[in-house]
Request: fold
Amino acid sequence: MDDQAKPRGRPSRGAMGSVYARLAADKHELLQRIREEKGWSLVTAIERAVDALAKQEGYTEHKD
Reply:
């Protein structure tokens, strides 16, 4: 097996947490752009899909 090969499969929980944190930070700006281009129904579908995936993976958004 090649030692330099990238690992395959699901990232560690730590990596997923940072992905979800970045998503939460960028989510509002991205969804605003999508709403302007495609309409509210697509934004709603994306929000629901992201929330469902985060819930499935056990991620909770911390509010300060």
The helical segments are 13-38, 40-57.
